[in-house]
Write a structure and sequence with these properties.
The protein is an alpha+beta fold. The protein has helices spanning about 5-20, 65-90, 105-110, 135-150, 150-155, and strands spanning about 30-35, 40-45, 50-55, 95-105, 120-130. Strand 2 and strand 3 (about 50-55) form a beta hairpin.
Length: about 170
């Protein structure tokens, strides 16, 4: 796709969002089915079902997806798509590339071994490896705009308010 095609594709969306800002609030949702016997959650996604389980550092066998990796995969995917769209809009020739998202988490925190050990990913690094002949200043601007407009990057950088709710949906013998 070229810049003109992208603008034509997005123009009616942008116009609608300007005229009716409420239509720009897009719901996002994920659901996981708990399978307690196997210590997995089945997540239905765009490409089918993914089974997420314990990481080997927490007792898993490595055959199931790691949720921390899935978070980093979402970041890399969003950043890559955003960068490609921005490159297209800017007319920056991009032959391809890779986006690498990396971070560490401390198994001591997750396993409850050390109350001082954090639970969750620590510092995350996002690296763009781009196949382009663009000038360095143009590449810097491209990466900066991808960072600015990437939904997952901005969600991690400026975390949303999180709430937790629960309900019991069935009781055996009741």
């Amino acid at each position: 796709m070229d810049a003109e095609g992208l603008r034509a594709l997005q123009a009616p969306l942008k116009q609608r969002y300007r005229e009716e800002p409420g239509t720009a609030l897009i719901p996002a949702r994920a659901e996981a089915r708990i399978e307690p016997e196997a210590l997995v959650c089945a997540v239905q996604g765009w490409a089918g079902e993914t089974l997420a389980g314990l990481h080997p550092a927490a007792g898993g066998d490595g055959s199931k997806a790691c949720s921390a990796d899935m978070l980093l995969e979402a970041l890399a995917a969003c950043a890559g798509v955003t960068l490609a769209a921005v490159a297209t809009a800017m007319g920056v020739p991009l032959r391809g590339g890779r986006v690498v998202a990396e971070g560490n988490w401390d198994a001591r925190g997750t396993l409850g071994i050390d109350r001082e050990a954090p639970v969750g990913l620590g510092a995350v690094t996002l690296t763009f490896e781009l196949d382009t002949d663009a000038e360095p200043e143009t590449v810097e601007k491209l990466v900066g705009l991808a960072e600015r407009f990437c939904v997952i990057y901005q969600s991690l950088r400026n975390p949303p308010a999180l709430t937790v709710a629960h309900r019991v949906v069935g009781r055996s013998g009741a």
